[in-house]
Amino acid sequence: MVISNKPLHFILVALVACLPVISFANSENDSLQLQSEVVHEEKVISHDSAMAEEHQALDPKEKVNAFIDHHLQDSHDFVFFSDEKENKHYGFSLPVILIDGGLKIFSSSKLHHGETVAEVDGNFYKLVHGKIYKTDAAGTINFNEHGHPENEKPLDFSITKNVVSMFLVSLLLLLMFTGLAKSYKKGPIPTGFGRVLEPLIIFIRDEIAVPNIGEKKYRKYMGYLLTVFFFVWLLNLLGMTPLGINVTGNIAITICLAAFTFIITQFSANKEYWGHIFWMPGVPVPMKIILAPIEVLGIFTKPFALLIRLYANITAGHVVIMSLIAMIFVGKNLAADLPISMGLTLFISVIEVLVAFLQAFIFTMLSSLFIGMAVQDHDHGHGHEEENVII
Hints:
Blueprint: H1 5-18, E1 23-25, H2 35-39, E2 44-45, H3 47-57, H4 60-72, E3 77-83, E4 88-93, E5 95-99, E6 103-107, E7 118-120, E8 123-128, E9 131-135, E10 141-142, E11 155-156, H5 161-183, H6 194-213, H7 222-238, H8 251-268, H9 271-278, H10 285-330, H11 334-375, H12 383-390
Antiparallel strand pairs: 1-4, 2-10, 3-4, 5-6, 5-11, 7-8, 8-9
Helix pairs in contact: 4-10, 5-7, 6-11, 7-11, 8-10, 8-11, 10-11
């Protein structure tokens, strides 16, 4: 890919413009994740004082668990690093967008990660467990017997760090593929970074799209397959950076991706696909009646397998790496724990780089397989048997 100077200049200018936004972020206390265990017997609490007492009561293992939980969750702001002694956190806030009797837009700095109450147009909001609840001027939060807030929640369309990450990856995809397309104008062989992209694109075409969908129909779905592959792959790699953004480990994201595959599959399906589901040819009538509900259930289990596989593998990788790093802080023998922890972390991180690619490949391959099963022309004599073998 050839990236001209103009996009580079634009990116540099954008980064410089964001520097003034970076400030001391009153970051969410990591021990907030364990608040339900400490105050579950209280119906109404003062959040600020309870958080301070709880932080002192936590032992190192509980702090590590709280930190891992915090890392896996989405957030309304970016925090790069923290000073626990002074309770200062360095990062920047993100816009909060709520629908509550109208559109409410304000900075997440007003929430101070649950430490203060944000007043917007006469309404009061507070951040608890990473979610925004309506409250009063005193910040009263009512908890049920399980320690979960019972306050009303407005519709939250905020630009969280996961959303920012997806915008960033989308911008990278746009620059990568537009640059690759422009490089073909100079000749049949791409130049620059396009030499890296072209083999991956050919690999997806020849090893995923054509075998599963067929040579006659694969081109129609190449745009989606390329997008979902590079989108998932780059998000997985972004989660391996020091920012540690757990986007594909968010089940809401994987549900959305699987939903796209489900919709494309169902709307692309031909009549033979539906015929094999509701009234399989070559099968006795009693068996057709028995198998039809199972086939209908299979329509929904396929995307469910997609979303769970991606979510579980990425989340497990983050938990393992964070747990290995935590060995340094939990163990009392620094000289012995440090090399073991760092060695295992490096080993797992290398495996996670492979898993980042592997999960993107599996998601794309299964998506193409499901689409191919919906659009291919079935052989009524052997189609159903071959389909079962593939599954």
